[in-house]
């Protein structure tokens, strides 16, 4: 049996290899073992219930890029935040030493900017009307500082034009707006310039509290031919009430993003926030987590879509031509 694989010499060799294997394993354990992948912690600031889809879109995008929630990424997010608590939420995320903050809307981005001043915590924003005008970045090509993100640019003028194309008899447009929201004020400037060029009159109504919002939709001017909603979480909280009254009064409405037609707006023009969060915002966050500084990542401009709701058109007695329908990217039937 000298040549048997079960010879004593063979068994001794196997035992030696086994013992050394155990010794090597213990040594690895003592040294910390194989390097473990880093787990990232991301904070989210969102002031609007209507932006929950944007948060989910961002998470989906991060998952596709390999960041699995509960495995190698943790999100610190407790749901939509009241506007007056944005600063405290941002400060809490900084205290938690997160790896990155996702801020949704201009107000949230400004709160994150203030809280992260003097730190190296990066911020990615979406959506912001005018990040340069809001003081978030130095320029779109070279943001500088610790902030970059996704903008939808000066879409409001084109959105007003789209509303008038769909409902050409419009002359007076009711515009409720929050003067305390920087993004809304910047958007209003663009809309005002566009209104002058298009030959329509804006009927402005300032609302900065829930009570003022309620009063605004209960007292829509009799000469208003349409309602134009600027991007603002305060107004969006009561959008169902607004749209119900608008249909009752047979007034066309324009929403601030293409998905707004699903809520019941007649028209909308802008970016698909969930899609942009899933694509551009997630891509920017990934690049930052991989070591690229926000200062070197240009602000991205999202793709625009035109949208129309034929059910709303029917409800307010408005006929939509085939020519208009051919120009729409999204149609709700």
Q: In words, what does this structure look like?
A:
With 333 residues, the chain is α/β, with parallel strands linked by helices. It folds into two domains: 40-152 and 272-301, 3-Layer(aba) Sandwich (Rossmann fold); 155-270 and 305-332, Response regulator (Rossmann fold, 3-Layer(aba) Sandwich). The chain contains twelve helices and 13 strands. It has helices spanning 8-30, 52-64, 86-95, 106-116, 155-166, 182-198, 210-218, 233-236, 239-248, 273-289, 310-315, 322-327; strands spanning 40-45, 73-76, 100-104, 123-128, 147-151, 172-177, 201-206, 226-228, 253-255, 267-270, 300-301, 305-309, 330-332. The strands form two sheets. It has a seven-stranded mixed sheet with strand order 7-6-8-9-10-12-13, with helices on both faces. A six-stranded parallel sheet has the order 2-1-3-4-5-11, sandwiched between helices. α2 packs across α10, α3 packs across α4 and α5 (155-166) crosses α6. The longest helix is centred in the N-terminal third of the chain and has 23 residues, at 8-30. The relative contact order is 0.13.
């Amino acid at each position: 049996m000298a040549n048997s694989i079960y010879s004593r010499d063979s068994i001794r060799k196997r035992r030696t290899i086994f013992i050394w294997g155990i010794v090597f394993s213990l040594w690895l354990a003592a040294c910390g073992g194989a390097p473990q992948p880093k787990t990232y912690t991301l904070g989210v600031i969102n002031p609007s219930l209507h932006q929950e889809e944007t948060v989910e879109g961002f998470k989906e995008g991060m998952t596709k890029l390999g960041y699995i929630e509960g495995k190698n990424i943790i999100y610190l997010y407790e749901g939509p935040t009241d506007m007056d608590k944005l600063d405290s939420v941002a400060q809490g995320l900084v205290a938690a030493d997160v790896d990155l903050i996702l801020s949704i809307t201009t107000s949230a981005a400004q709160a994150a900017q203030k809280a992260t001043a003097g730190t190296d915590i990066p911020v990615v924003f979406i959506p912001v009307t005018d990040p340069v005008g809001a003081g978030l970045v130095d320029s779109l090509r070279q943001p500088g500082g610790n902030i970059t993100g996704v903008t939808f640019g000066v879409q409001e003028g084109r959105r007003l034009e789209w509303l008038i194309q769909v409902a050409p008899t419009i002359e007076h447009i009711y515009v409720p707006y929050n003067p305390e929201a920087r993004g809304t004020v910047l958007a209003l400037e663009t809309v005002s310039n566009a209104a002058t060029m298009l030959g329509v009159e804006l009927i402005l109504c300032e609302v900065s509290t829930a009570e003022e919002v309620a009063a605004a939709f209960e007292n829509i001017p009799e000469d208003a031919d349409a309602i134009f909603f600027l991007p603002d979480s305060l107004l969006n909280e009561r959008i169902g009430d607004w749209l119900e009254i608008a249909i009752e009064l047979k007034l066309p409405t324009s929403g601030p993003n293409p998905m707004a037609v699903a809520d019941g707006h007649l028209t909308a023009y802008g970016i698909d926030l969930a899609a942009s969060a899933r694509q551009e915002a997630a891509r920017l966050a990934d690049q930052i987590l991989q070591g690229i500084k926000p200062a070197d990542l240009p602000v991205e401009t999202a793709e625009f879509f035109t949208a129309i709701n034929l059910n709303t058109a029917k409800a307010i007695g408005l006929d939509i031509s085939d020519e208009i329908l051919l120009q729409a990217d999204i149609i709700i039937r």
